Structure formats: C-alpha cells, structure tokens
Amino acid sequence: MTITIYDVAREANVSMATVSRVVNGNPNVKPATRKKVLDVIKRLEYRPNEVARGLASKKTTTVGVIIPDMSNIFYAELARGIEDIATMYRYNIILSNSDQREDKELQLLETMFGKQVDGIVFMSEHVSIDLLNMMERSPVPIVLAGTIDATGHMPSVNIDYHQAAFEAVNRLLQNNHKRIAYVSGSLSSTINRAFKFTGYEKALAQAGIELDNDLVVESEATYDAGYTAFNKLKSINDAPTAYFAGNDELAIGLIHGVQDAGLNVPNDVEVISFENSKLARMVRPELTSVVLPLYDIGAVSMRLLTKYMNKEKIEEKTVILPHRICERNSVK
Amino acid sequence: MTITIYDVAREANVSMATVSRVVNGNPNVKPATRKKVLDVIKRLEYRPNEVARGLASKKTTTVGVIIPDMSNIFYAELARGIEDIATMYRYNIILSNSDQREDKELQLLETMFGKQVDGIVFMSEHVSIDLLNMMERSPVPIVLAGTIDATGHMPSVNIDYHQAAFEAVNRLLQNNHKRIAYVSGSLSSTINRAFKFTGYEKALAQAGIELDNDLVVESEATYDAGYTAFNKLKSINDAPTAYFAGNDELAIGLIHGVQDAGLNVPNDVEVISFENSKLARMVRPELTSVVLPLYDIGAVSMRLLTKYMNKEKIEEKTVILPHRICERNSVK
DNA sequence: GTGAAAGCGCTAACAA
DNA sequence: TTGTTAGCGCTTTCAC
C-alpha cells in the first residue's frame, strides 16, 4: 500500500492542501503545522508521486535527450555535460539512442512528447527537413547540442567548425606541406561536409594549393577506418605528407598505419586531429588536436534549455563556443 | 491546446472508453468503429499523455538506470546494452550519474522511486549496507549490472571475476614470470578487492610464489595511473617482468611507460589487461586481455529486470556470464 | 461491443 | 494560515 498525501493529511489533522504546501516549500504555512506535517511525512515515509504531480502541474521535471550512440566516447562526453547541468537544475534525463536513423529520431521525439518531457536536447549528424518540421511544431523547447540545423531556426550550441578546420589545416600548411589529406568521417554529416571540409578547402585555396579529391577520404569515424585510409593513400602518386583527421580515433588509426609502414610521425608524416578526447594522450606521439569542448557543449545546451523552459529571455539562440588547438607531438 | 482522449471521443461520436480501447489495442471494438476512431486520432494528431496513463495504470514504462559515470567508456558500454534491451521491450530509461558517491546513490534511488519507474538497473563499485537496505525495501524490482552485492540478496549479472583474474595471471605465469605486478583500480571496489585480487593471489599461491605487497599498486583506473605505476615499479629491487592490469586504460599507460623507458612489450615486459574495450586494439602492441562482455552484462541485466517487472518466473537470480581471454600481442 | 463513472495522487484556484 | 473543490488525462470496472 503506497501512502499518499491524503494519508499524511489525515494523520496530521490538516487538509491535503496544507500537506501539499509543506511538500512544495510554500511559505504560507505556520511553522508549527509545518513541523507537524513534516513529522508525519517522516513517520509514514511519505514520498510524493511525481507522476501525479506531473499530471496536475503539467511539468515533469524531466528532459529528453536523443543521442546517436551513448557508447561512443564523443557523445558520451556531451551527454555527461547535459546530465550534470540537468541535475543541477533538478531535472532528470530520459536518454535514448537513435543510431542516426531518421525514423528512430522521429519516433523518439514522438515518444518524448508523449512522456510529457519539459524539453529536449537533440544530437545528430544530420537534421532532415522532416525532423525540422517536427521540431518546430514541438510542444516543448528543443535545443541542438553539437549539431547543425541548416535553417538556423533551432537553438543550438556548437563551435565554429569551419574556422577550426581552417586553422587545423593551416597548422599543417605552416610546416610547408603541399599534399594534405582530409580523412573525414561520413560526409553525410553536416559538420563534416559543410564546415570541416570547406575549412580544409579554404585553407588549401588560400595557400594556393589545388584541391585533390583523391586526398579526401570519407569513411567511418573509427580507428580501423583511419588505419585503412592511410594504407590506401600511402601508395598513391605523390602521397600525402600530412593528414587532417576528423576525430581522434581516425587520427590514431592513421598514426599506427604510418608506423606499421615503417615511417615516423611527425618526421615523415604529420597528423592533426579534431576532438581532443582523452584518447589524444593515449598514443605515441600524442595528438596535436583541435579541442572540441564536448562536455561544455552539452552543459551549455542544457543550460540554454533551462532558460527556454523557464521562459527566460534568451540572449543568444545560436551559441558558438570558443575552440583552440592543443599542441602535442603529432605535428612538428 | 493539447488535445485529449475526450476530444477524440467527441469527434468520433464514441465514449472515451472506446477511444482508450483502440489506443490500447483492446480487441473488443468493432472494426468499423475502430477505423472511425483511428481516423479521428490521425486527423486531430492525438497523442496519448503517458503521464496520465501512468497515473491511472500505475505503470510508467520507464526504468531508472544509476551509473557511476556515463562518460566512462566502461559504463557507457554497459548502459548501451541496457538501453537496447529496454527499447526492445518498449521501456524508456532515466539515466543518472552517481559518481560512486553513496549519498548520491541513495538520493537517486529515492528520486527514481518518486518518479514511479517500473524497475531499476543499478551499477556501482561498492554497494553499502545502507544501499542494500534501501534496495530491499524498494517498491520496484532492482537488478545489479556488473556490480557485486556481498549478501547475494539482489538479482545481478556479472562474470566470474575471481576466476577470470586467476586465468589472466596464470597466462602470465605460463611464461615463467616470477615477479608479476597487479595494477588495480581502487581497492574499495568490491570486484577489484574481493575477486580480482584474490584471483591474482590464488594464481601466485598455486605457482608457489609468495605474494609481494609491493607489487600490488592501487590507483585510479586511468591511463596516467598506469603510466605512473610502471614508473614506480620499474626501479624497485627485482622489478616485475609482467603486469596484470585492472583495465585497458591502465594497461595502455603501463605499456607506454615501458616503452618510454626504452623497453619492449612483450619482450622485456608482458602486460595482460582486463576489459577488452575497443581501446585494446588501439595500442601497439595490441592488448591481450580478459574480455569483459560489458554490453552483454547490460543487456542481460535489463532482460532480467523485464522478467521481474512482468512477474515472470526467474530461473537464475544471480547470473554469471562466460568470459575468455583474447590473445593479442602484449603477452607472448 | 460500448458507455458511464469512479478513481489514480496531486496542484491550484478560490474561499474562508 | 488553512480548507474545499475542481480538475489534470487516462484506465478500468461494471452495466447495458
């Protein structure tokens, strides 16, 4: 038998409204009766039913988080930032994996609406029109974390990927490389295609180097793919002497490819990464990398969401966090 | 204006009970009226309010997951297994980080009870008495995933850590090592202390080697800690020639320590790990490791939980999954 | 096969 | 300062 607010009221000889008041910290309760109620609550081990509360108040203090893959270190870090800020603001999180499948993303949004979440943080490498339509008709605020909405309609938090990629490639250019490869994750990812790739392009153009499509390889964003990419590129004519890797795993795969070919990083081949997860220090040489502040992106997204949920005034609906390059030893 | 079951009923000229029946797939509805209702639902874009449903039915189809740190690759993998099976059974997941702090764990349980979750999957390196007491008085089933309950009262899924550690150390013994170090994560972790350590102990004893406490180093379970541990042990008298690492990060730190000291793995020093995450293949040499089936532990835990939630008969309340050693190149 | 009506446990006016 | 009373949107008997 679960005990309800009504039981407490009866035991304490007050109305349920009064119990509700003390439970919700409403100041309009005489200290004496507050104490009386609190005592009964403790004695009966009363615990408010948040579902009932949610139905009555139309607020569930839970937010939905839609993530491509929580076992991916990249997204796990983002999610941790989200969760930390969520708990700071007393929200709980319903976390679901979408595996980047649009149908699942759509269905997950639907599920979260049904569960009456107070808001949603959404992550994906590509936001389709259908998704955007659904989001714009959302009953609750949604913010995009580390994900790009081409229309710019949705609140979002990111870094300037284009500029960051530009700088990364420039860092390589600085060492006089003429043949710089871009080993990217999937180019169906908006960030990879429309921002990082164009940053790469721009840096080359500015250095007067013609883009060679043979030097841009699209693959999964994994260690094996990096390894494979190097082995594919090492034997082409005029092979690249430097690599811009889409993420740390790719970079490590690349480096091991180089080393297994009897070459040295950074003396024979230089590699710059784009992520700076804790993996970056777990290779020899350690990775020089653009630092993507994943945790912060998650945290700021959630903070932004709380502002929407509280109907606070929003200064920046599209926030761009700063980035930098962390110098280590994969680039001279 | 959100539209409710009542709106649908009115538009379809039926009672809300009938709408409820079609929404819930109750067969006692004439096909014609079912169709009529379905049409109205589609036209009005009606979406059932799961909170109201939860209040009325006393089931929320959501389960709580308490995890030490979701940004830790180890737990993230476990959580992914949990989530996959949860969605397979149409549950959603409320995920919260405890950072292994008992007060947070306690409070998180309380929160989840309040949210009326239908069940809980709990992970922690140490389950205190207070926690156990609270769990035994839980209104909903709880299963422990990859975590040990000394009393054996709670349902749980694990591997035989003791035996696995025993085998790992034996693998090293097989190569005639006499000085084998155990670089563990925190020994306040029940698994590390009561199972892996004793497995190590037993293997040594059986080989007639006396336990040397200088060779067991307790640290964080991180890359840096592994690196540091090697540097601490390399210069002691009769330094270890083989290492049993508590997890992959530790193992990689150890290996880089060895290499930075100008030594070779596995020729000068051998290292065996205990985890086999994807990191295991991202070092040179690749790690020989006990494979801890994290994803499966998560998946099986969740499956077990569904059985409890459905009040199915439970065959094994304490499930032990099989393990094995994956041979790669950090051990000869 | 369908409807009426009583809750589920709480919040939030509104009165007193 | 406290109590009364409607709901919140749905499920679930129980009749018909």
Give an account of the 3D structure.
The structure is a homodimer of 332-residue chains. Chain A has 332 residues and is of the alpha/beta class. The first copy, chain A, has three domains: 5-48, lambda repressor-like DNA-binding domains (434 Repressor (Amino-terminal Domain), Orthogonal Bundle); 61-159 and 294-323, Response regulator (Rossmann fold, 3-Layer(aba) Sandwich); 161-293, 3-Layer(aba) Sandwich (Rossmann fold), CATH 3.40.50.2300. Helix content of chain A is 44%, strand content 16%. Chain A is built from twelve helices and twelve strands. Chain A has helices spanning 5-12, 16-23, 31-44, 50-57, 73-88, 102-114, 129-136, 161-173, 190-206, 223-233, 248-260, 294-309, and strands at 62-67, 92-97, 119-122, 142-145, 156-159, 180-184, 216-218, 242-245, 270-275, 288-291, 318-321, 324-326. In chain A, the strands form two sheets. A six-stranded parallel sheet of chain A has the order 2-1-3-4-5-11, with helices on both faces. In chain A, strand 3, helix 7 (129-136) and strand 4 (142-145) form a beta-alpha-beta unit. The mean pLDDT of chain A is 96. Chains A and B meet through helix 4, helix 5, strand 2, helix 6 and helix 11 of A and helix 4, helix 5, strand 2, helix 6 and helix 11 of B. The first copy, chain A, binds a DNA duplex (16 and 16 nucleotides) through helix 2 and helix 4. Chains A, B: Keywords: Activator, DNA-binding, Repressor, Transcription, Transcription regulation.
